[in-house]
Specification:
The complex is a heterotrimer of chains A (293), B (641) and C (153). Chain A has 293 residues and is an all-alpha fold. Chain A has ten helices and one strand, in the order ααβαααααααα. Chain A has one domain. In chain A, helix 7 packs antiparallel against helix 10. Chain B has 641 residues and is mainly α. Chain B folds into two domains: 252 residues, no CATH class; 264 residues, no CATH class. Chain B is 73% helix and 2% strand. Chain B has a two-stranded antiparallel sheet. In chain B, helix 1 runs antiparallel to helix 2, helix 4 runs parallel beside helix 8 and helix 5 runs parallel beside helix 16. Chain B is globular, with a radius of gyration of 25 Å. The two termini of chain B are 44 Å apart. By secondary structure, chain C is an alpha/beta fold. A five-stranded parallel beta sheet of chain C has the order 2-1-3-5-7. Chain C has a two-stranded antiparallel ribbon with strand order 4-6. In chain C, helix 1 crosses helix 4. Chains in contact: A-B, A-C, B-C. Chains A and B meet through strand 1, helix 3, helix 4, helix 5 and helix 10 of A and helix 19, helix 20, helix 23 and strand 3 of B.
Chain lengths: 293, 641, 153
């Protein structure tokens, strides 16, 4: 119980720091890939600080409260994961959080953020099956949806779930809004949807959004770690390494691909989900009758 | 011997009220009778609950000697047959009357079969599932009737072309309710068949209420599909009675669960009949056509009665479908319907059609749960049914009230109704949230279904649930976004919801929220023992602890936005214009077009109608599901012969 | 006071320029000149921008647009006029539709001359704008404080 409380508190405090650092690393590595110096490592924190110091602006006053809800629900999601409760429940609360972001974007009735919001929904539709199948995969392997059972199994779950792992990495690209799937928002300007779902978020609202993204990234990468971890402490080190490698991979994909059409994204994501995750789970159901890790 | 007078009251009283209403022309009197009738039905259901509680939740058997009633029912069956035949000839759909004449003859023969004299046939049987259905029917059904009284007078004010026969309409609603009570309480197969035909005819008459050409076509489509199911049911009953010499529904299920060779085909036929009733593919089109009728009838068809009759039968049958070919195929059809119908719902912009497709889709999930036939899935199915009944009824009534106010039921026209019809929008929001948002009921049930599918190692059902729930959340959230967006233009609509409509909506919303909060309680006290009754074992998939956590999260979902509102009111904000490339015309409603003129901004959702519209994918899906059903019967017949 | 100099996000608006300066502005954001080392990000959204870079003069059509974009930016904000057209109207000054430099419609803080302005000069201009940006923050905070005391009083 005590360790659970400590890990939840650690998550709440450390997640934004880690998330921000990862963001900084992302920008730095991207810069190096383009043979330039790039911003300082702590640039994301400078940006966040500035956003909090600017004049508070809104297009509609309900925006800020919806974004605040988005932030709080995201924190709850992560806290639930670190408290070791049901993984599916975490994912459902995550989807509720995503809904608040959607509301915050479309409540403004502005053209660009509405189109971004619609595309965000398509993104949710694209990645949702893979997320659920990931949970199902964990359940099949460890016999429980409880995060604490999944994390401390006898073996690393990835042994049984290579296909699910790959599918999860695939949809991670969508979740992290990286190219070629940055269709609901764009990090780069002068695109047809301006800033997409974040178009009407300035100053403090954008700061909330950024902070939530950091929390979300840490949460998603923590789920990634569940594939690797088992009882031995070494596996946790391995998990960190895998996370970093996957993160690097995402940056690489981001830097060398252009955005695709949303319909192609859905088709691609679903195909990957069915082929990789679906067949993996099917085989698992057929081959192993009672795996309890 | 127990008498329990409230049971014949529950079944007969709605019929008598209907008769009274049929001859009442005075508006005030009509309303009074309807209100009284609805309230009395709820009271009777309450008394039934009380009596049953006194008996300690034990199953109750009643009415073994019912010769007179049997004769009455036989005569009524003939009357129904004559009525259908007459209407078929009147509207020149002569072939359809065969679907009524043939099963009536079959049933007449079935009644002549010598029943095993040692077995005492109880005609009424009360257990938890029956009580659950009674509760849903009496509460939701009565609330819909209360709503309908006000709605119909508004309806006839707007639709002058339709002849005002609202007394007939209300009478039909009562008949419908009465036959539903009869249906869920009766344990004799003959009675079951009779009430089954009653609901078919009621829905047929309700759909054809306006007597427009479209209404007539759609009502006959509903009629032939449901009569086809009825025919299957009649054949099943006859076959079963002929070989087993009994007409008891309970022994029917018991023998089915044992895998008795003469029960296989009847179970499959009855399941098939249930599919037609709950509008599964390939029979979904009748429910879509039912939209032409006034809203209360849609609400009744979709939530408390009709389609739930099919689900009720399947839940009853689930022990008999557990792990055999019928169950497998039925769950396949259900899962397929869930998946495909949610696609079709994405492509709809008419609110009632979205609701219709989502009903088909959700029923598909319930059918799949029942088809798997394990306690875990039935637990999920039962909860899906409860939540679906309440929130779908709420949504239909709300869309009806909204339509009266804004003269449109297109979701695109509901852009920003939160700002001009705040109360209706709020109810709509609650209803939709109940349908898909975590941690409300439907989602929890879906979660249980998912889990049960995994436990059953049913990969196909699992994939259908996973992908179907992704598309489900797309169409609901699209709609929610429309409700809360700021309006395109200043509102010129007035909320003309009548007080009685409003009362019904409020009660629905209260029921919805109460159900969400009391979820663990309902599961522990009611649904779980129900499974013990049906399967002999408990089937709770989600541990009680998880359910309590969910309740805590529900409280969060309500409090966090409130707290956030307080917080965001405190900080000072500066309003800015929304970004439109710097060419707003002074507000967020207009921008400067390329001719330098102001142009109104108009926002719309994605629908993909040309990719996944009903026209595009309904036919292929019907073929696929018909193929599955055909395959099922081929295999079963092959096994028997 | 928080050091906001390190994170200037720019919004680039093309007035009625010949596109020469625009190419240079974008060039200084590309890898060759790497403006991101100063934390400069091109946002394309006024709600998120701190520094408004305007190239080209103001004509009767875009005057309202420039004003609106400037209004949509949250305080503290800085305006930099890039290129001689944005500073004064340049070679187009006497055209029938040109009103003049950007300062005809909104207050300009930094003038970066040149035809076209060189990327080095543009970065220099943005860095100069950053100092003003910091200064503006101080003014902004003072104003908030004043408002607060006025309210309490």
């Amino acid at each position: 119980m005590k360790t659970k409380i400590i890990s939840v508190i650690a998550y709440i405090i450390l997640a934004p720091i880690i998330g921000g650092l990862l963001d900084g690393i992302d920008r730095k590595i991207s810069a190096r890939m383009q043979r330039r110096v790039g911003p300082p490592l702590l640039q994301p924190f400078y940006d966040l600080g500035k956003l909090f110091n600017k004049q508070v602006i809104v297009v509609r006053s309900s925006q800020s409260f919806l974004l605040l809800c988005y932030l709080i629900f995201m924190i709850i999601t992560g806290a639930m994961l670190y408290a070791g409760v049901d993984l599916l429940m975490c994912m459902f609360v995550l989807s509720t959080a995503a809904m608040f972001l959607y509301f915050a974007a479309c409540v403004t009735s502005s053209p660009y953020s509405t189109i971004g919001a619609s595309r965000e929904l398509i993104q949710i539709m694209a990645y949702e099956p893979a997320v659920l199948l990931t949970c199902v995969g964990f359940y099949l392997v460890s016999g429980s949806f409880e995060v604490s059972d999944i994390a401390f199994g006898k073996f690393s779950d990835i042994i049984y779930l290579p296909g699910v792992f790959l599918a999860y990495i695939f949809i991670l690209t969508i979740k992290m809004r990286k190219s070629p799937f940055d269709i609901s928002t764009s990090h780069h300007p002068n695109q047809e949807i301006v800033k997409g779902i974040t178009s009407e978020m300035g100053a403090r609202n954008l700061a909330f959004f950024t902070l939530t993204e950091w929390y979300e990234n840490v949460f998603l990468l923590s789920v990634l770690a569940l594939f690797i971890t088992n009882r031995s402490p070494v596996s946790f080190l391995a998990a960190v390494i895998v996370i970093l490698v996957v993160y690097f991979l995402e940056i690489l994909i981001d830097n060398c691909s252009a955005r695709i059409k949303y319909f192609d994204m859905v088709k691609l994501a679903w195909a990957v989900t069915v082929v990789l995750a679906g067949s993996n789970i099917w085989i698992l159901m057929l081959v192993k009758q009672n795996i309890v890790n | 011997m127990l008498v329990m007078p409230e049971i014949p009251f529950l079944i007969c009283f709605p019929f008598l009220t209907a008769l009274l209403l049929f001859f009442t022309k005075n508006d005030k009197l009509k309303a009074l009778i309807s209100y009284l009738g609805a309230i009395l039905v709820i009271c009777a259901a309450g008394i039934l609950w009380f009596d049953w509680l006194k008996g300690g939740y034990e199953p109750i058997f009643l009415y073994q000697n019912t010769e007179i009633v049997d004769h009455i029912i036989f005569v009524a069956e003939i009357v129904i047959m004559v009525l259908i035949t007459f209407l078929c000839f009147k509207y020149k759909k002569r072939i359809i009357c065969l679907l009524s004449i043939i099963p009536t003859i079959i049933i007449a023969f079935a009644e002549q079969i010598n029943i095993n004299p040692t077995e005492k046939l109880e005609h009424i049987y009360i257990d938890r599932l029956a009580m659950l259905m009674c509760t849903i029917i009496s509460l939701v059904g009565s609330l819909i009737i209360i709503y309908a009284v006000g709605y119909m007078s508004g309806y006839h004010m707007h639709h002058k072309e339709v002849k005002d026969r609202s007394n007939y309409f209300l009478a039909l609603l009562f008949v419908f309710m009465g036959s539903m009570f009869g249906f869920v309480l009766s344990s004799s197969l003959i009675w079951l068949y009779f009430f089954w035909e009653c609901t078919s005819v009621c829905s047929f008459l309700l759909i054809g209420y306006t007597r427009s050409e479209e209404a007539v076509t759609n009502s006959f489509r509903a009629l032939w599909m449901n009569l086809l199911g009825g025919t299957a049911l009649a054949i099943g009953i006859f076959y079963f009675a002929f070989f087993e010499r009994t007409l008891s529904f309970r022994s029917f299920i018991a023998l089915g669960a044992l895998g008795d060779v003469y029960a296989i085909l009847p179970v499959a036929l009855m399941a098939f009949a249930a599919l037609t009733k709950s509008a599964q593919l390939p029979f979904s089109t009748w429910l879509l056509g039912a939209m032409v009728a006034p809203t209360p009838s849609s609400a009744l068809l979709h939530s408390a009665t009709m389609v739930k009759a099919g689900i009720y039968v399947l839940l009853r049958l689930s022990p008999a479908m557990s792990g055999n070919i019928t169950g497998m195929m039925i769950s396949l059809v259900g899962g397929f319907t869930f998946f495909v119908a949610s696609f079709m719902a994405v492509a709809q912009s008419d609110a009632k059609r979205v609701l219709a497709m989502s009903t088909v889709s959700n029923l598909g999930l319930m059918v799949a749960c029942a088809g798997v036939g394990r306690p875990e899935t039935v637990w999920a199915g039962a909860f899906l049914m409860i939540f679906h009944a309440v929130s779908k009824s709420l949504l239909f009534l709300d869309v009806g009230a909204t339509e009266n106010s804004i003269h449109s039921r297109d979701i695109e026209d509901m852009h920003g109704i939160l700002f001009f019809l705040p109360l209706l929008a709020m109810f709509m929001f609650i209803g939709i949230a109940g349908m898909f948002l975590a941690p409300f009921g439907m989602l929890i049930s879906k979660w249980a279904a998912l889990r049960a599918a995994v436990d059953e190692k049913n990969i196909i059902l699992l994939m259908f649930i996973v992908f179907g729930s992704a598309t489900t959340s797309l169409y609901w959230s699209k709609w929610m976004g429309k409700i809360i967006s700021h309006p395109h233009a200043p509102a010129e609509f007035k909320d003309i919801t009548r007080p009685n409509e409003f009362v019904s909506l409020v009660l629905h919303a209260v029921m919805m929220i109460a159900l969400c909060v009391l979820f663990p309680f309902v599961s522990k006290v009611f649904v779980d023992p129900m499974l013990v009754e049906m399967f002999g074992m408990s089937g709770q998939v989600l541990s009680q602890g998880v359910l309590y956590i969910l309740v805590v999260i529900i409280c969060f979902v309500f409090t966090i936005p409130l707290l956030s509102i307080f917080y965001s009111h405190k900080i000072q904000t500066n309003r800015k214009l929304s970004y439109m490339g710097g060419i707003n015309e002074g507000d967020n409603c207009f921008f400067t077009d390329s001719m330098g003129e102001p142009k109104r901004l108009w926002l719309s959702n994605y629908y993909f109608a040309n990719k996944i519209g009903i026209r595009k994918i309904m036919m292929p899906c019907q073929f696929v599901s018909a193929g599955i059903l055909l395959g099922m019967f081929c295999i079963i017949l092959g096994a028997i012969l | 006071m928080y050091n906001i100099k390190r994170s200037p996000w720019v919004l680039h608006y093309d007035g009625s320029s010949c596109n020469g300066c625009d190419i240079e502005v974008l060039a200084c954001l590309t890898p060759v000149y790497d403006a991101e080392r100063f934390g400069i990000v091109n946002t394309g959204d006024p709600m998120q921008a701190d520094i408004l870079l305007i190239t080209g003069g103001i004509n009767s059509q875009n005057a309202a647009v420039v004003k609106q974009l400037y209004e949509q930016m949250p305080r503290p904000k800085v305006v930099a006029a890039i290129g001689v057209c944005a500073c004064t109207g340049g070679v187009f000054k006497d055209c029938y539709n040109i009103l003049g430099g950007v300062d005809k419609v909104i207050p300009v803080d930094v003038y970066v001359p040149g035809c076209a302005a060189r990327p080095q000069a543009i970065i220099d201009g943005i860095v100069k704008a950053c100092d003003i940006f910091q200064q503006r923050l101080a003014e902004h905070e003072q104003m908030i404080k004043k408002n607060k005391t006025a309210k309490e009083g």
